[in-house]
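User: I'm curious whether this sequence folds into something compact or stays loose and floppy. Could you predict its structure so I can see for myself?
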Amino acid sequence: MLPWWPRRVFAHVLSAQLLITAGVTALATGLFLAPLAAQLDEQAEHRALAVAQATAAQPGIARAVLAGAPDPEGPVQDAAERIRLATGASYVVVADTRGIRWSHTNPAEIGRHVSTDPGPALAGHEWTGIEKGTLGRSARGKVPLRDTEGAIVGEVSVGIAYDDVRDVLLHALPGILVYSGAALAVGALAAFGVSWRLRKRTHGIELSEIAALLQEREAMLHGIREGVLALDRHGRVRLVNDEAGRLLGLGQDAVGRPLEDVLPPGRTADVLTGRVEGTDLLTVCGERVLVANRMTTGFGTVATLRDRTELERLARELDATRGLTEALRAQDHEHANRMHTLVGLLELEMYDRAVEYVAEVTGADRSTAEQVTERVREPLVAALLVGKGAVAAERGVALRVGPATRLPDGVVDPTDLVTVLGNLVDNALDAARPGPEAFVEVEVRAVGTAVVMSVADNGPGVPEQARELVFTDGWTTKEATAHRPRGLGLSLVRRLAERYGGSARVTEREGGGAVFTVELPDALRPAGPERDAPERCSLEEVGG
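Assistant: Here's the prediction. I'll summarize afterward.
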């Protein structure tokens, strides 16, 4: 900055505005033709627009366009020529929605396509400008032609000859010097007023301090561990800090582009654009679970994002722990019933029957566990099925292992299988129709290096129109639990499957109910001799 240049914002802006005003006034005085020509052209455009609006307001013209075909001697041509002569316009052209002329100063042009684009007017917008048509350059105004119901049936285009504007300009030369001096005085006063107001708004800070504030803002936005995304009024990205770029997978090239162009369609885009309203909205972007909040400002909207992935993972581990606790409680409850039965037999001195009962119970439990572990060699998955079997038994639901179940060891990531299978079984247990016939059937099988899991229930099923919605995050028919909201389980299941390059889908079960099927390619290590062993075909119940 020059040493003699003022440092305060007030003085800086005042000096700059005075210099600019003086320069612009001098330029306008020396080169008056172009600015005044533009002003007169604008006046001509407004005049053309006013004539077009008055023409379009006559209901008889719209009715005539709807009633017949273009006619050089028709009512539309007569009305247009009458208006043209009364207003001194170069032409008044009425066109239908196809762009076909219904009126023109040259009757031979009626029935032909207009020479300029009628698109803005046919789209419902008024338009002004300078264009060249069959009658030469002219200041034009175009407006939509509407019927009595408000529907667009065509356009009205009115032109004022461009040469007429130049003639008016030449006659205005004598007053330009007078106006230039007045403009300089008014500009100086306006600059002083604006600068004084700016001084009050900026509290007398210096320009260097403004730069420092901007740098601090940038450092703060990009240093915080919360994502910040700003959109303008048209939905274009104005700002993306580093955390938001990481969470949403966006780069700085996203700035200035519509959000729909940088984010795929889905709940995340709906939340950020305001199509889904609320506070602390959960959404899944890629493999991340995000909490989003959105606030409207005078210049657009600002959305904040918090990464809840780790918290959601811990919540699901808590769910797994609670599920294990529930399974242990169910087993404890069943064990207590068996002990009461055994005590009763002993008190009745039915010792032989008590021995048989103990052998029968322990043998059945051992047989159930052996059958699961024989078919499912992965310990975590086998333990999950045994635990869910105890929970299902307490709910009065039979948890069955399908006949094709065969999962060898060598699973790449057993926790992924537990996550998928646990979510599917929990949903199926909730959906199973109450009653003695209630059941959930689980089938886990290896197909090469892929794992295919299917869980069926005899509940009400999933309507066809909702079979894609069930996999969207936030969609649920259940009430939220105390520790976290619902509607993320099946969404995470599908995203996990897609991460493997597989799929997740739901179909109707024959006889009623739903069948959820998840395919995880390359979830197993390359096949070994043990994995090729023949499968047993039987249907067993787990637990209870």
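Summary: The CA atoms of residues 61 and 67 lie 10 Å apart. The domain at 224-307 is CATH 3.30.450.20 (Beta-Lactamase).
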